[in-house]
Design goal:
single chain, 344 residues, alpha/beta, Rossmann fold, 3-stranded antiparallel beta sheet, 11 strands, 38% helix, 28% strand, elongated
Length: 344
Protein backbone atom coordinates (compact mmCIF):
# COMPACT_ATOMS: atom_id res chain seq x y z
CA UNK A 1 0.00 0.00 0.00
CA UNK A 2 1.30 3.45 -0.92
CA UNK A 3 0.13 6.67 0.82
CA UNK A 4 0.43 10.01 -0.93
CA UNK A 5 -0.32 13.33 0.75
CA UNK A 6 -0.93 16.68 -0.91
CA UNK A 7 -1.81 20.11 0.52
CA UNK A 8 -3.36 22.72 -1.77
CA UNK A 9 -4.76 26.25 -1.14
CA UNK A 10 -7.87 26.98 -3.19
CA UNK A 11 -10.93 29.25 -3.22
CA UNK A 12 -14.48 27.92 -2.99
CA UNK A 13 -16.14 31.02 -4.54
CA UNK A 14 -13.48 32.68 -6.73
CA UNK A 15 -16.02 34.72 -8.74
CA UNK A 16 -15.99 37.31 -5.90
CA UNK A 17 -12.56 38.38 -7.13
CA UNK A 18 -14.32 40.09 -10.03
CA UNK A 19 -15.25 42.83 -7.53
CA UNK A 20 -11.56 43.75 -7.32
CA UNK A 21 -11.79 45.19 -10.84
CA UNK A 22 -14.60 47.53 -9.83
CA UNK A 23 -12.68 48.52 -6.68
CA UNK A 24 -9.60 49.39 -8.74
CA UNK A 25 -11.70 51.64 -11.03
CA UNK A 26 -13.17 53.47 -8.01
CA UNK A 27 -9.73 54.02 -6.45
CA UNK A 28 -8.24 55.35 -9.70
CA UNK A 29 -11.24 57.66 -10.25
CA UNK A 30 -11.01 58.97 -6.67
CA UNK A 31 -7.29 59.74 -6.96
CA UNK A 32 -7.76 61.44 -10.33
CA UNK A 33 -10.53 63.70 -9.01
CA UNK A 34 -9.02 64.38 -5.60
CA UNK A 35 -7.44 67.69 -6.66
CA UNK A 36 -10.77 69.05 -7.95
CA UNK A 37 -12.49 68.40 -4.61
CA UNK A 38 -9.62 69.75 -2.42
CA UNK A 39 -10.64 72.87 -0.32
CA UNK A 40 -8.45 75.99 -0.60
CA UNK A 41 -7.79 79.39 1.04
CA UNK A 42 -6.41 82.46 -0.71
CA UNK A 43 -3.43 84.36 0.73
CA UNK A 44 -1.68 87.46 -0.60
CA UNK A 45 1.77 86.10 0.19
CA UNK A 46 2.87 82.41 0.81
CA UNK A 47 6.59 82.87 1.42
CA UNK A 48 6.25 82.17 5.15
CA UNK A 49 4.19 79.03 4.49
CA UNK A 50 6.92 77.63 2.25
CA UNK A 51 9.31 77.58 5.22
CA UNK A 52 6.97 75.41 7.30
CA UNK A 53 7.36 71.59 7.25
CA UNK A 54 4.22 69.45 7.07
CA UNK A 55 3.09 67.86 10.35
CA UNK A 56 2.77 64.09 10.80
CA UNK A 57 -1.01 64.47 10.63
CA UNK A 58 -0.85 66.03 7.19
CA UNK A 59 1.63 63.41 6.04
CA UNK A 60 -0.66 60.61 7.26
CA UNK A 61 -3.84 61.92 5.61
CA UNK A 62 -3.74 59.06 3.08
CA UNK A 63 -3.55 56.33 5.76
CA UNK A 64 -7.27 55.94 6.66
CA UNK A 65 -8.22 55.60 2.99
CA UNK A 66 -5.42 53.04 2.40
CA UNK A 67 -6.51 50.98 5.40
CA UNK A 68 -10.11 50.99 4.13
CA UNK A 69 -8.98 49.76 0.72
CA UNK A 70 -6.94 46.96 2.30
CA UNK A 71 -9.91 46.07 4.54
CA UNK A 72 -12.23 45.85 1.52
CA UNK A 73 -9.72 43.64 -0.34
CA UNK A 74 -9.49 41.33 2.67
CA UNK A 75 -13.31 41.17 2.84
CA UNK A 76 -13.44 40.17 -0.82
CA UNK A 77 -10.84 37.44 -0.19
CA UNK A 78 -12.90 36.23 2.77
CA UNK A 79 -16.04 36.10 0.58
CA UNK A 80 -14.08 33.96 -1.92
CA UNK A 81 -13.65 31.44 0.93
CA UNK A 82 -9.97 30.43 0.88
CA UNK A 83 -9.49 26.80 1.89
CA UNK A 84 -6.70 24.36 2.52
CA UNK A 85 -7.48 20.99 0.98
CA UNK A 86 -5.50 18.18 2.54
CA UNK A 87 -5.71 15.15 0.23
CA UNK A 88 -4.67 11.67 1.22
CA UNK A 89 -4.44 9.00 -1.45
CA UNK A 90 -4.25 5.35 -0.53
CA UNK A 91 -3.03 3.23 -3.39
CA UNK A 92 -3.33 -0.53 -3.03
CA UNK A 93 -1.09 -2.32 -5.52
CA UNK A 94 -1.53 -6.05 -6.03
CA UNK A 95 1.52 -7.13 -8.00
CA UNK A 96 2.14 -10.22 -10.11
CA UNK A 97 5.13 -12.55 -9.79
CA UNK A 98 6.57 -13.34 -13.22
CA UNK A 99 9.49 -15.52 -14.31
CA UNK A 100 10.76 -14.99 -17.84
CA UNK A 101 12.29 -18.25 -19.11
CA UNK A 102 14.43 -17.75 -22.23
CA UNK A 103 16.12 -20.30 -24.48
CA UNK A 104 19.83 -19.50 -25.01
CA UNK A 105 20.80 -22.44 -27.22
CA UNK A 106 23.03 -21.71 -30.24
CA UNK A 107 20.03 -21.80 -32.58
CA UNK A 108 18.89 -18.51 -31.02
CA UNK A 109 21.65 -16.87 -33.10
CA UNK A 110 19.79 -17.64 -36.35
CA UNK A 111 19.16 -14.36 -38.16
CA UNK A 112 15.49 -14.67 -39.13
CA UNK A 113 13.82 -12.11 -36.81
CA UNK A 114 14.06 -8.81 -38.73
CA UNK A 115 14.85 -6.07 -37.97
CA UNK A 116 16.74 -7.52 -34.98
CA UNK A 117 20.18 -9.05 -35.47
CA UNK A 118 19.00 -12.55 -34.49
CA UNK A 119 16.41 -14.41 -32.43
CA UNK A 120 18.18 -13.82 -29.13
CA UNK A 121 18.60 -10.07 -29.70
CA UNK A 122 14.91 -9.80 -30.64
CA UNK A 123 13.96 -11.64 -27.43
CA UNK A 124 16.22 -9.41 -25.30
CA UNK A 125 14.88 -6.21 -26.87
CA UNK A 126 11.22 -7.13 -26.38
CA UNK A 127 11.82 -8.54 -22.88
CA UNK A 128 13.36 -5.24 -21.76
CA UNK A 129 10.40 -3.27 -23.13
CA UNK A 130 8.05 -5.62 -21.28
CA UNK A 131 9.91 -5.13 -17.98
CA UNK A 132 9.88 -1.34 -18.33
CA UNK A 133 6.08 -1.34 -18.67
CA UNK A 134 5.38 -3.36 -15.52
CA UNK A 135 4.34 -1.74 -12.22
CA UNK A 136 5.11 -3.27 -8.81
CA UNK A 137 5.56 -6.78 -10.24
CA UNK A 138 8.36 -9.04 -9.10
CA UNK A 139 10.09 -10.42 -12.19
CA UNK A 140 12.75 -13.12 -12.40
CA UNK A 141 14.90 -14.48 -15.23
CA UNK A 142 15.66 -18.14 -15.96
CA UNK A 143 17.92 -19.16 -18.88
CA UNK A 144 18.22 -22.60 -20.42
CA UNK A 145 19.67 -24.70 -23.20
CA UNK A 146 20.65 -28.30 -22.30
CA UNK A 147 20.24 -27.33 -18.63
CA UNK A 148 18.74 -24.34 -16.81
CA UNK A 149 19.75 -21.81 -14.19
CA UNK A 150 18.32 -18.71 -12.54
CA UNK A 151 20.15 -15.59 -13.69
CA UNK A 152 18.00 -13.15 -11.66
CA UNK A 153 15.57 -14.33 -8.94
CA UNK A 154 12.15 -12.57 -8.82
CA UNK A 155 12.84 -8.98 -7.82
CA UNK A 156 11.44 -5.45 -7.86
CA UNK A 157 14.88 -4.05 -8.73
CA UNK A 158 14.23 -3.54 -12.43
CA UNK A 159 17.65 -1.96 -12.94
CA UNK A 160 19.41 -5.21 -12.01
CA UNK A 161 16.89 -7.19 -14.03
CA UNK A 162 17.38 -5.07 -17.16
CA UNK A 163 21.14 -5.42 -16.78
CA UNK A 164 20.72 -9.19 -16.55
CA UNK A 165 18.67 -9.28 -19.74
CA UNK A 166 21.15 -7.07 -21.61
CA UNK A 167 24.06 -9.40 -20.74
CA UNK A 168 22.42 -12.62 -21.98
CA UNK A 169 24.58 -14.63 -24.38
CA UNK A 170 24.07 -18.05 -25.95
CA UNK A 171 25.36 -20.89 -23.79
CA UNK A 172 26.37 -18.46 -21.02
CA UNK A 173 28.64 -20.88 -19.20
CA UNK A 174 26.33 -23.87 -19.54
CA UNK A 175 28.32 -26.92 -20.67
CA UNK A 176 25.43 -29.10 -21.81
CA UNK A 177 23.94 -28.16 -25.15
CA UNK A 178 20.42 -28.88 -26.36
CA UNK A 179 16.96 -27.64 -25.38
CA UNK A 180 15.71 -28.75 -21.95
CA UNK A 181 12.18 -27.33 -21.84
CA UNK A 182 11.12 -29.59 -18.96
CA UNK A 183 14.08 -28.59 -16.76
CA UNK A 184 13.57 -24.91 -17.59
CA UNK A 185 9.87 -25.04 -16.69
CA UNK A 186 10.60 -26.90 -13.43
CA UNK A 187 13.28 -24.32 -12.52
CA UNK A 188 10.86 -21.45 -13.13
CA UNK A 189 8.16 -23.18 -11.05
CA UNK A 190 10.65 -23.58 -8.19
CA UNK A 191 11.12 -19.80 -8.19
CA UNK A 192 7.38 -19.19 -7.88
CA UNK A 193 6.06 -22.04 -5.73
CA UNK A 194 6.60 -20.18 -2.44
CA UNK A 195 5.31 -16.85 -3.78
CA UNK A 196 2.39 -15.29 -1.90
CA UNK A 197 1.25 -13.27 -4.94
CA UNK A 198 -2.31 -14.02 -6.04
CA UNK A 199 -1.15 -14.29 -9.66
CA UNK A 200 1.98 -16.23 -10.65
CA UNK A 201 3.07 -16.39 -14.26
CA UNK A 202 5.82 -18.01 -16.35
CA UNK A 203 6.71 -16.74 -19.83
CA UNK A 204 8.60 -19.51 -21.63
CA UNK A 205 10.32 -18.58 -24.91
CA UNK A 206 12.07 -21.17 -27.08
CA UNK A 207 12.95 -21.88 -30.71
CA UNK A 208 13.35 -25.66 -30.47
CA UNK A 209 12.01 -28.99 -29.27
CA UNK A 210 12.72 -30.66 -25.94
CA UNK A 211 15.74 -32.91 -26.56
CA UNK A 212 17.65 -32.77 -23.29
CA UNK A 213 17.30 -32.59 -19.51
CA UNK A 214 16.50 -34.88 -16.58
CA UNK A 215 12.88 -33.66 -16.24
CA UNK A 216 10.48 -34.27 -19.10
CA UNK A 217 8.03 -31.47 -20.03
CA UNK A 218 4.99 -33.52 -19.00
CA UNK A 219 6.28 -33.83 -15.43
CA UNK A 220 7.14 -30.13 -15.27
CA UNK A 221 3.67 -29.33 -16.60
CA UNK A 222 2.04 -31.31 -13.79
CA UNK A 223 4.17 -29.48 -11.23
CA UNK A 224 3.13 -26.10 -12.65
CA UNK A 225 -0.54 -27.13 -12.59
CA UNK A 226 -0.17 -28.33 -8.99
CA UNK A 227 0.99 -24.88 -7.91
CA UNK A 228 -1.65 -23.11 -10.05
CA UNK A 229 1.02 -21.28 -12.04
CA UNK A 230 -0.07 -19.92 -15.42
CA UNK A 231 2.35 -20.46 -18.32
CA UNK A 232 2.51 -18.39 -21.50
CA UNK A 233 4.60 -20.16 -24.15
CA UNK A 234 6.23 -18.51 -27.18
CA UNK A 235 7.65 -20.32 -30.18
CA UNK A 236 10.16 -18.02 -31.85
CA UNK A 237 11.63 -18.23 -35.36
CA UNK A 238 10.75 -19.91 -38.65
CA UNK A 239 10.67 -23.71 -38.98
CA UNK A 240 12.84 -25.41 -41.59
CA UNK A 241 16.42 -25.16 -42.81
CA UNK A 242 18.23 -22.10 -41.51
CA UNK A 243 21.70 -20.62 -41.59
CA UNK A 244 23.47 -20.59 -38.21
CA UNK A 245 26.27 -17.99 -38.03
CA UNK A 246 29.64 -19.32 -36.86
CA UNK A 247 32.26 -16.83 -35.67
CA UNK A 248 36.00 -17.50 -35.98
CA UNK A 249 39.32 -15.67 -36.25
CA UNK A 250 41.30 -15.65 -39.46
CA UNK A 251 45.09 -15.91 -39.71
CA UNK A 252 45.43 -12.19 -39.00
CA UNK A 253 43.30 -12.29 -35.82
CA UNK A 254 40.26 -10.65 -37.40
CA UNK A 255 36.81 -11.82 -36.40
CA UNK A 256 35.00 -13.49 -39.27
CA UNK A 257 31.56 -14.99 -39.73
CA UNK A 258 30.43 -17.89 -41.83
CA UNK A 259 27.16 -19.80 -41.95
CA UNK A 260 26.35 -23.41 -41.28
CA UNK A 261 23.13 -25.02 -42.43
CA UNK A 262 20.92 -26.45 -39.66
CA UNK A 263 17.32 -27.53 -39.22
CA UNK A 264 15.20 -25.53 -36.75
CA UNK A 265 11.68 -26.41 -35.58
CA UNK A 266 9.36 -25.63 -32.70
CA UNK A 267 7.14 -28.23 -31.02
CA UNK A 268 3.86 -26.33 -31.35
CA UNK A 269 1.85 -29.20 -29.87
CA UNK A 270 3.94 -29.38 -26.68
CA UNK A 271 4.05 -25.62 -26.12
CA UNK A 272 0.34 -25.33 -26.85
CA UNK A 273 -0.46 -28.09 -24.35
CA UNK A 274 1.66 -26.48 -21.60
CA UNK A 275 -0.10 -23.14 -22.10
CA UNK A 276 -3.63 -24.50 -22.41
CA UNK A 277 -3.50 -26.82 -19.39
CA UNK A 278 -2.11 -24.11 -17.08
CA UNK A 279 -4.60 -21.44 -18.17
CA UNK A 280 -2.10 -19.53 -20.28
CA UNK A 281 -1.79 -19.01 -24.02
CA UNK A 282 0.54 -20.17 -26.81
CA UNK A 283 1.99 -17.71 -29.33
CA UNK A 284 4.03 -18.07 -32.51
CA UNK A 285 6.40 -15.22 -33.37
CA UNK A 286 8.34 -15.17 -36.64
CA UNK A 287 9.59 -11.55 -36.56
CA UNK A 288 10.38 -8.89 -33.98
CA UNK A 289 7.08 -7.02 -34.44
CA UNK A 290 5.12 -10.22 -33.89
CA UNK A 291 7.14 -10.87 -30.74
CA UNK A 292 6.36 -7.36 -29.50
CA UNK A 293 2.68 -8.00 -30.11
CA UNK A 294 2.93 -11.20 -28.06
CA UNK A 295 4.38 -9.42 -25.03
CA UNK A 296 1.87 -6.58 -25.39
CA UNK A 297 -0.93 -9.15 -25.32
CA UNK A 298 0.53 -10.77 -22.20
CA UNK A 299 0.70 -7.33 -20.55
CA UNK A 300 -2.96 -6.81 -21.38
CA UNK A 301 -3.95 -10.21 -19.97
CA UNK A 302 -1.77 -9.94 -16.86
CA UNK A 303 -2.62 -6.53 -15.46
CA UNK A 304 -1.35 -5.30 -12.12
CA UNK A 305 -4.34 -4.52 -9.90
CA UNK A 306 -4.25 -0.93 -8.60
CA UNK A 307 -7.00 0.50 -6.36
CA UNK A 308 -6.91 4.22 -5.56
CA UNK A 309 -8.91 5.78 -2.71
CA UNK A 310 -8.74 9.55 -2.26
CA UNK A 311 -9.78 11.40 0.90
CA UNK A 312 -9.87 15.21 1.04
CA UNK A 313 -10.26 17.34 4.18
CA UNK A 314 -11.05 21.06 3.77
CA UNK A 315 -10.03 23.71 6.34
CA UNK A 316 -11.68 27.17 6.02
CA UNK A 317 -9.36 30.21 6.19
CA UNK A 318 -11.83 33.07 5.64
CA UNK A 319 -12.16 33.81 9.41
CA UNK A 320 -8.67 35.26 9.72
CA UNK A 321 -9.10 37.42 6.60
CA UNK A 322 -12.43 38.72 7.93
CA UNK A 323 -11.00 39.52 11.37
CA UNK A 324 -8.16 41.52 9.81
CA UNK A 325 -10.60 43.33 7.52
CA UNK A 326 -12.82 44.42 10.43
CA UNK A 327 -9.82 45.44 12.53
CA UNK A 328 -8.25 47.56 9.78
CA UNK A 329 -11.60 49.21 9.00
CA UNK A 330 -12.09 50.17 12.68
CA UNK A 331 -8.52 51.54 12.82
CA UNK A 332 -9.15 53.63 9.70
CA UNK A 333 -12.31 55.13 11.26
CA UNK A 334 -10.45 55.86 14.50
CA UNK A 335 -7.59 57.58 12.66
CA UNK A 336 -9.96 59.60 10.50
CA UNK A 337 -12.15 60.83 13.39
CA UNK A 338 -9.60 61.17 16.21
CA UNK A 339 -5.87 61.25 15.43
CA UNK A 340 -5.94 62.61 11.88
CA UNK A 341 -9.18 64.51 12.13
CA UNK A 342 -9.41 67.52 9.85
CA UNK A 343 -11.26 70.63 10.84
CA UNK A 344 -14.30 71.99 9.02
Amino acid sequence: MQKIKGVLVSFSDPFYFSVLGALAIVVIWTIANKRKRRPSLQFSHIQLFSQLSPSWRSRAQFLPALLKIIAIILMIVALARPQISDSKIKRNVEGIDIVMTIDISDSMLIEDMPPAENRLEAAKQVAKEFIEKRVSDRIGLVLFCGEAFTKVPPTLDYKILLGGVSSITTGEGLIKMGTAIGVALANAVARLKDSTAKSRVIILLTDGENNSGTIDPETALEIAKGYAIRVYTIGIGVDGMSQLPIYYQDAFGNKRKRYQAMHSSVNDDLLGKIATETGGKYYRATNTQALQNVFNDISRLEKTKIEVNKYTKYTELFQSYLRWAVLLYIISIFLNRVLIRRGP
